[in-house]
Amino acid sequence: MGKAPETSYEVDRIETTLGNEEEGADFSKQADGSSFEVFRREEGAVDFRTVSWPHASVIFLKYIFATGVLSIPSCMFVLGAFPGAINVVAWTMLNTYCAIIQGNFRNSHPRCHSIADMAHLVGGPLLREVVSILFLLAYIICAASGILGVSEGLNALSDHAICTQWFTFVATVIVAALASVRKFEKMAWLAWLGFGSAFVAVLIVVIGVTRLDRPAAAPQTGDFDLGFHTIGSPTFVAGVTAAATIFCSSAATSAFLPVISEMKKPKDYPKAVYLSMTIVTTSYLAFSLVMYRWCGQWIASPSLGSAGPVIKKVTYGVGIIGLCVSACLYVHIGSKYLFVRVLRNSPHLQLNSVIHWATWFSITAGVSAVSFVVASGIPIFNYILALAGSLCFAPLAISLPAYLWLHDHRDWRVGGYLKTAAWTWNAFLILVGAFMTVGATYGVIQEIINAYADGTIGSAFSCADNSNSS
Q1: 450 Cβ contact list (under 8 Å, min separation 6)
Q2: Among 132, 242, 392, 461, which is disulfide-ready with 116 (CB 3.0 to 4.6 Å)?
Q3: Contact between residue 333 and residue 258 where contact means Cβ atoms under 8 Å apart
Q4: Is 400 strand, coil or helix?
Q5: pTM confidence score
Q6: CATH architecture group of domain 49-336+364-453
Q7: C-beta separation of 287 from 202 below 8 A
Q8: 3-state secondary structure 196-226
Q9: SS3 sequence of 123-184
Q10: Nearest to 169 by CA among 344, 4, 334, 376
């Protein structure tokens, strides 16, 4: 099955750490006593273990690609082309590293279905609850960004025929319906379709901006300032917000973990991560640098609106499927966590019972509804992603994975030079995550306050279209 074996010491230690009385954890062993998988292959039960590693890679790719590629180009204007490119490469490499740490930890402790289970193992029930809240908040915010993107697409295709809030509601209904697909195996086919849709849409707008004499949003007569800078000079608030947005574009690695529990061979997880993150890094660099070179400060947010009204309609027409799938994946991952948390020690977890389906549909509808509220309250694409990155993903995708590594490599602190260096590096990452959590959250909140103050955001739940706000 590709599961990493646990020594008797590890099993004893886990039982001691968690305690059989802890709510929400599954402590029963397989028949051979070897592991504690959440989803098991049992006669008469629904088989969730059906995801191949290529399917896992496209699910990972779709979690990350669509929203990130729409937000990074406008961050280039804030930071400048060179620092922006460094941020893209550095953050994606760091997020890849932390994703591998999380996967290795999960395969060494296969009872862990989510990042919250890992937090429970290393820090007890209090840390589990804190991480659970951050995890759910992160993917609710990301789902909100996807819903916002879909509503912007519907606005563009209809020439803002009705109030934006109605489009946001329609987008939420579509996303909730797609997210109700129960198994990641089925979601993989949606992910293939969604990734192809988003990739082609972005390619169209990238080619489109290179065919214009001047950016579509720039003054169409007379001189204008393109705003292209090799190195920018942002304020701390603007710079840290842009960095948080770029970081968030590849930070959804905690969403990878529940997929492992549904993989045919969990040991193939690293292959899926490396493939998806390589595609993400190269695509982000190529697309964002080209768009910034040709549009400068006149990049729309989301960036699909940067090549003029005609190309905007074409790209949203092609890419709206990808935006829907992105949002539904975020709703699905948050819902799957709650679903497993509620039914983990119940036979209904893998039975096609009324309780099973009623629980699943109720949770997906609830998560979608909360995402709708968030999308309506912060209707600027970049800010909503930056908030997810700073407040939630910084501790989830940097600090906690580093602590997981330290937990499993405690003896490396006093080992040889290389082991000590590795231990020090991971201890340093905890501080990096803490800085991003505090500093970037402050920056994003200040940017949102400024946006309300200067009229960039009219008001929450308004009919205004904020698609060109950056």
Answers
A1: 456
A2: 132
A3: yes
A4: helix
A5: 0.81
A6: Up-down Bundle (1.20)
A7: yes
A8: HHHHHHHHHHHHHHHCCCCCCCCCCCCCCCC
A9: HHHHHHHHHHHHHHHHHHHHHHHHHHHHHHHHHHHHCCCCCHHHHHHHHHHHHHHHHCCCCH
A10: 376
Q: Are 424 and 124 in contact (CB under 8 A)?
A: no
Question: 62: alpha, beta or left, given left = phi > 0 and alpha = psi -120 to 50?
Answer: alpha
Please identify which residue in the block is written with the tokens 């977890």: 349
* DSSP-assigned beta bridge partners for residue 263: 51
> Treating both helix axes as pointing N-terminal to C-terminal, what angle do 269-295 and 184-210 enclose, rounded to 10 degrees?
20
Nearest alpha carbon to residue 57 among 195, 174, 213? 195
Please give the backbone phi and psi of residue 443, each rounded to the nearest 5 degrees, phi first.
Answer: -60, -45
Domain spans in the chain, listed from the N-terminal domain onward:
49-336+364-453
SS3 state of residue 261: coil
Residue 383 CB neighbour total at 10 angstroms: 26
Structure tokens at 95: 């997020």
Instruction: Name the nearest CA neighbour of 337 among 258, 270, 263, 223.
Output: 258
**Is there a contact between 250 and 388 (Cβ–Cβ < 8 Å)?**
no
C-alpha span between 360 and 357 (Å, rounded): 5
Token duo for residue 273: 């991560």
Give CA separation, 371 vs 80, 185, 215, 241, 462, in Å: 32, 24, 33, 21, 16
The H or E element that residue 424 is part of is helix 417-435
Q: How far apart are the first and last CA of the chain?
A: 47
pLDDT in tens, the chain (470 residues): 444 444 333 433 433 333 333 333 433 343 333 345 666 666 666 667 788 999 899 989 888 886 667 778 888 889 999 999 999 999 999 999 999 999 999 988 888 888 999 999 999 999 999 999 999 988 898 888 888 888 888 888 887 767 778 888 999 999 999 998 888 777 778 888 888 898 898 899 899 989 888 888 888 888 888 888 999 989 998 898 889 889 988 988 998 988 888 888 889 999 999 999 999 999 999 999 998 999 888 887 667 778 888 888 898 899 889 889 988 989 999 999 999 888 887 888 878 889 999 999 999 999 999 999 888 776 666 677 777 778 888 999 999 999 999 999 998 988 789 999 999 999 999 999 999 999 888 988 888 888 778 776 655 555 655 544 44
